[in-house]
Design a protein that fits this description.
The structure holds two protein chains of two kinds. By secondary structure, chain A is an all-beta fold. In chain A, 0% of the residues lie in helices and 45% in strands. Chain A contains no helices and nine strands. The mean pLDDT of chain A is 93. By secondary structure, chain B is an all-beta fold. In chain B, the strands form two sheets. In chain B, strands 2, 4, 5, 6, 9, 10 and 11 form a seven-stranded mixed β-sheet that branches. Classes of the chains: A mainly beta, B mainly beta. The interface between A and B is medium-sized, with 27 and 33 residues.
């Protein structure tokens, strides 16, 4: 699976948009980008995933660059409850049932 | 639809003992994966089961084993517990039949194992 690089930590003011970057320069054409988050000591929560096009759901938006070498997760109006570790994962089909987690980005939303 | 459930939520064992953890996947999901999370190593993949067969395996010693039942429920077992096995054990399920990249895994709350 392609390696991902994320900043170790970020701050965001409550009510503002949180933009979390992820680099995946070795991504292959059939690999999806997944985002999960983990609030302290809970199980990771699925947020969103995409292949080429930008995606949006009720939680967030995912912007993938045209060359697919990087992506940005956008939380449009961050709240204190969005404070968590955010993981960007690139997944290959051959690794069935397996997600490779890096260290993620710790997002701290401040009042 | 109910989410992934794991039992027990907390467990305390002593070195040398064995432990069995249980995971019930989301209804209709046939793939179950197990992960170990420790402060030092982060989240690491243990193994995946699909249709009662282990389909993928991580780099863990043979003391870690699992199985899946015909109703897709899964158990993992750790024998001869060591202090370093203290961790949060997470289970995830997906509807995957082909292990496609787009198949989404949904995680349970985890079992916190403490080995004394």
């Amino acid at each position: 699976d392609a390696k991902t690089t994320q900043p170790p930590s970020m701050d965001c003011a409550e009510g503002r948009a949180a933009n979390l970057p992820c680099n995946h320069s070795t991504i292959s054409g059939n690999e999806y980008v997944y985002w999960y988050r983990q609030i302290h000591s809970q199980g990771p929560q699925y947020i969103i995933h995409g292949l080429k096009n930008n995606e949006t759901n009720e939680m967030a938006s995912l912007i993938i660059t045209e060359d697919r070498k990087s992506s940005t997760l956008i939380l449009p109006h961050a709240t204190l409850r969005d404070t968590a570790v955010y993981y960007c994962i690139v997944r290959r089909a051959s690794n069935t049932g397996k997600l490779i987690f890096g260290q993620g980005t710790t997002l701290q939303v401040k009042p | 639809k109910a989410g992934v459930t794991q039992t027990p939520r907390y467990l305390i064992k002593t070195r040398g003992q064995q432990v069995t953890l249980s995971c019930s996947p989301i209804s209709g999901h046939r793939s179950v994966s197990w992960y170990q999370q420790t402060p030092g190593q982060g989240l690491q993949f243990l193994f995946e089961y699909f249709s009662e067969t282990q389909r993928n395996k991580g780099n863990f010693p043979g003391r870690f084993s699992g199985r899946q039942f015909s109703n897709s429920r899964s158990e993992m077992n750790v024998s001869t517990l060591e202090l370093g096995d203290s961790a949060l054990y997470l289970c995830a399920s997906s509807s995957s039949s082909l292990g496609l990249e787009r198949d989404t895994q949904y995680f349970g709350p985890g079992t916190r194992l403490t080995v004394l």
